[in-house]
Each structure stands twice: as C-alpha cells, then as structure tokens.
Amino acid sequence: MKIVDLRGKLPVHKTKRYAQRLLSAIRSLAIHHSLTLTGSAEAFARYHVTTNNWAGIGYTYVIGQDGTVYQCMDWTQVGAHVGNSNKHALGICLVGDFRTQKPTAAQYQAAINLVWYLQSRIPSAKDIKGHSEYPGYASKACPVIDMAKFRADVAAPVAVAPQYPAARVLVNAKAVANGLLIDNRAFAPLRAAGEAAGAVVGWDNKTKTASINGKPVYGQLIDGVSYVALRAVADALGGTASWDGSSKTASIKVA
Ligand SMILES: [Zn+2]
C-alpha cells in the first residue's frame, strides 16, 4: 500500500480548525465515495473550504483510482463527513461516483489494506461502516458499494502463496502480514511475526531452520520467503496460540 502524506499541504480555512480527539475516541472507519467521476485530495479540500466553509478537507484519507492512499489530516483531528458521528468516525473517501462507476481493483484493495493498517494501530476502531449506515444517513447514496461484501473481504485473508490456503495472523491482537496453512498448521512470515512479537529472528539457509530469540523453530522457505509455524513461535516465547476457523485467523499471545 502506497501512502502519500499530504498533511499540512492541503488548502485549509483561514481561521477555522477541526477539533482534536483522543485516538481511543475513534470507534469506526467510515467509507465514502466522492460522488465525482474524478478528483483528488486537493480538489476536495478546496471545495470543502471555499464552498462548504469547512476548516479543511472533510476526510482523513482519500484513495485515488490508481490505489494510491493520501493521508489528509491527523487521526486525532475530527473531520467533517458523517455529521453527529464525526467525533467517533475516521473518514475514508474513494474517488469515484459509484452510482455509475465501480471502484477500480487497485482502489478496492487499497481500501482493504488501509482498513487493516488502521485497525492494527487504532484498536478502538472496530466498526467498518458505509456513510449511509450512520444514524441519519440511511437515504444517502454513499458509498453505494456492498458494505457487507467489503467487510467480508476485509475479514478474509489474502493468499500469499497460491498453492496453500491463506490465513490471517494476529500477534498480540495486531494483524501482521498474511500467513498460510500447511497440513492444517498456520505458518506466518518469520520476520513479520517475529518483529510483531518483539523477538529476534534468524534464518539459517543451509539447514533451512528458523530461530526465535536463538531457539530453533520449524520453518519453511516458500517462494523465497521464510515462514515459521506460528504455534512454534508461541512455544519459543512461552506464549499461547489459537485458531479461529470461521475467520481463518491464527493468533498468538506472547508476553
Ligand atoms: Zn459519504
């Protein structure tokens, strides 16, 4: 996911400023479309400031049709996109008019990746809702895309090696890079899982052995990436491992 930081670079109101909030006040991620066939964070910011007389652009993120993600303000800034729910919502706007267009594949995947990224860093942002799912906006044609499908797509793991079933991997409740299942055992990318667990990882290419804090653990090299059995990581670090079959999620908790 390519993120371009536009904070401090977009048009803002001469005097008005958005209120601040605690990160823990954010309960949901709000998905919008721009209702314009084309557009950009700059264009939306100019419109929101000069026509709507707002403090700045209403959304925290804009996702272009090429899948580029633009961050427009801090997470702790209360934007303007869902009325009374603004304080508890973080706005994500996909460029396009989805009454007549569809999000591009790159844009849709970027939205999923952005939700993953945000939910792993803002634990209180549990809900993913379309604009029209907020109180008072049932009649709003935004974002028009099937939000139930979007939420299912967010929950589904992304295949990393097509020859194996994909699995989501959580380390201490934080999502890390996708893993896979080999013989019903969950494997995670060694480096990502180790770093998320705060451990020192190693890989001996001669013996094809992974290590966690110096202890050898069972690993496999798949498409040039070293994977490690997630339960072995938990064991090596004195933690616990669990598996949720419905969401295909392997979790470990380590101290
Ligand atoms: Zn909207």
Compose a concise summary of this entry:
The protein is of the alpha/beta class.
How many domains, as an integer?
2
Counted by DSSP, the helix tally is 5
- For the report, how would you describe the main beta sheet? 7 strands, mixed
Low-pLDDT ranges: none
Within CATH, the superfamily of the largest domain carries the name: Peptidoglycan recognition protein-like
Structural notes for this entry:
This protein has 255 residues and is α/β, with parallel strands linked by helices. The chain has two domains: 3-155, Lysozyme-like (3-Layer(aba) Sandwich), CATH 3.40.80.10; 166-253, 2-Layer Sandwich (Copper Amine Oxidase, Chain A, domain 1). 20% of the residues lie in helices and 29% in strands. The chain has helices at 41-50, 105-121, 147-155, 190-196, 230-236; strands at 3-5, 28-33, 61-63, 69-71, 89-94, 127-130, 166-171, 174-182, 185-189, 201-204, 209-212, 215-217, 219-222, 225-229, 240-244, 249-253. It has a seven-stranded mixed β-sheet. The chain has a six-stranded mixed β-sheet with strand order 1-4-3-5-2-6, covered by helices on one side. It has a three-stranded antiparallel β-sheet with strand order 10-11-12, covered by helices on one side. A hairpin with a 4-residue loop joins β15 (240-244) and β16. The longest helix has 17 residues, at 105-121. The radius of gyration is 21 Å and the shape is elongated. The two termini are 30 Å apart. Zinc ion binds next to loops.
